Amino acid sequence: MTVASVAARPANRSLPAALAEAEERYVRANPASQRINAAAQAVLPGGNTRTTVYYAPFPLCIRAGRGGHVTDADGHDYADFINEHTATVFGHSDPVVARALAKAIADGLTLGGPSLYEHELAAAIIARFRSIERLRFCNSGTEANLLALATARAVTGRPAVMMFKGAYHGSLLTFTPGPSPINMPIPFVESRYNDRERALQDIEANADRLAAVIVEPMQGGGGAIAGDKAFLAGLRESCSRHGILLVFDEVMTSRLGPGGLQGRLGIAPDLTTLGKYIGGGMTIGAFGGRADILARFDPGRPGAFPHGGTFNNNVLAMAAGLAALTEVLTVEAVETMNTRGDALRRRMNEIAARHEVALQATGVGSIFGLHFQRGPIRNGDDLDAGARGHEKEIAQLKSLFQLDLFERGLYVTRRILCNISLATSDADIELLLAALDEFLATRGDLIREVVN
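RESULT FIELD:
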């Protein structure tokens, strides 16, 4: 997979033909991944256990990672712009984290009591997030969000939760592109992201039954759509007025500032959920917030909320997370990474403007999404309106983009929601920008046929 092989691509005849040719080259180049996927089909529905990492004709099987790169089962090296869907902030096999893990493993696993690390990791998180006064650990972002909403319903005595179209709060709280049939059976009120007036009206109309409003300060799975400060501040004011708990899902966005995106915006929620990177690459989740709310989990208090979990405080996540947060992901490192991400997104938009094609990069800091669309993108309705009538073709463009970038040695998602890590090099960024430039030059006519 070299630049030369990309230059040898046949001329475009049509979007379906271009995609078929790209898929044919992909299959030829990745026999080991194809073989592994075929074997997996016998024991895993669809050959995998994570819907978010599947794409046709089969996903690459990743064998190893080092620094800012990953290697697949066929030996191809890629600059990693997936970074475990924003969780791999530190790059792969960071030596500080690796040493912490080695020590924890040597001391023994699943020890059946409080560990040496969990209170220190909690203190490190609380030191960064001003709205988090106390917290509880769990095992994933999904679990953190479920626990936060269950807490809000128990504390307020109200049943319903307001969420926003396009939101992704975990595998059992999925609202992108629409509600998942296996969502938890919570009474949900759907509102529109970044529409302050509509959101405040929806809160007002349902205030007597709303326990919580849950929102991502930047919608991640919904397309890296940044939340307007006025919109989020309006939610804060309205929730306070009606005794509704405001929950910020910062599982993804907490990496966008030393104190999360809430710190950059200066807006304090009642509860915050975390996950992904805070365990240093190990499985982890956390929910925290106001001390009076979290005090309900104190086992020494009468009527305390029960919250067990064999691996809530597993020593690998606690040790790795503590080392990662205190020694690797420093305040300076967070700020530098996100400044680089802002510059990358700006340069992507400049390249698209130069080619005069309907492509735009959205996001905040080190996370970006690419959309084949003109006009403002403020919520899922904007995305739906931009794609209306050519949804299939836009999906084909995204597939073609991913396969073309694989050939250039760039690991990106099919939905083109990507991010950089601390280990992403300047050379990796320049390679991505060059590949984008080349894609728009060679595939620009196909884009123009789909989006005017």
